[in-house]
Amino acid sequence: MRSNVTLWWVLFAFFFLVGVVYTWWNIIAHTGDIVQRIEWVGTVALFFTSFMGILIAFYLHRVHKAQRGELPEDILTAVVDDGEPEQGHFSPWSWWPIVLAGAAGIAILGLAIGTWLMPIGFAIVAVALVGWVYEYYRGYFAR
Known about the structure:
The chain is flat. Helix 1 runs antiparallel to helix 3 (about 40-65) and helix 4 packs antiparallel against helix 5 (about 115-135). By secondary structure, the protein is mainly α. The protein folds into two domains: about 1-75; about 95-135. The protein contains five helices and no strands.
């Protein structure tokens, strides 16, 4: 966790520095009014990216302080089994994730081919989501 916090603070500093240099470079490279010399899209994107970095760094720092201990990833003498938590429930026989991925693909393909395909994809997405959520409602392997 400490390395993640450090990484995000470094990314904040990098993007902020690049944003300042980028803005300064545009001001000296172009002529005209100060508002017209700044390239606003890149400047705003770089400063918002640095702002995102500081938000994530602050959040991770607070989480690290609140957990009151080190994660196994931060301990050099840790074994792989130390960081092996329960990952949740998994249905290896479930076909619903494949149906959902195909339906999402049909819906997105509707953006490229034609909008008539999007409602069909969204309808299949709705059926796949309901099927996946209620998969254990009737028991194992129930149809």
